[in-house]
Specification:
globular; transmembrane; membrane; 109 residues; Tryptophan synthase subunit beta; mainly alpha; transmembrane helix; 2 domains
Length: 109
């Protein structure tokens, strides 16, 4: 397992902790090596749906999700996806920290 794959797995685990139990269980199942026959078509459909975001129901959010699923099986995608998830995680944590600081400042008043 490459360093980028390990980093991707760590980010997925962090993300799964943020999800409600049902979706987290589905994400965990889709990431298993035995789910490759579901993961690849699902990733393909998400990427295509992302490109068709001008249609109702479909959205641009589908494109990065599909690429993340592809990254599980396509090593060249693992590094950029791990870097992207790292950036998202840092921004998320910064935002949570800022929110806590604002709450502390309000309660101190």
């Amino acid at each position: 397992m490459s360093a980028h794959q390990k980093e991707l797995d760590r980010h997925f685990a962090w993300f799964e902790k943020k999800l409600p139990p049902g979706p987290a269980k589905f994400v965990s199942w889709v990431r298993k090596p035995t789910s490759i026959y579901v993961r690849i078509p699902l990733a393909f459909l998400l990427v295509v749906g992302g490109f068709l975001s001008f249609l109702p129901v479909l959205g641009l959010w589908m494109l990065p999700l599909g690429l993340l699923l592809f990254a599980q099986d396509v090593p060249p995608l693992q590094k950029p996806m791990a870097q992207g998830l790292g950036w998202i995680e840092r921004k998320w944590l910064e935002r949570e920290r800022a929110k806590l600081e604002r709450e502390r400042a309000k309660s101190a008043q």
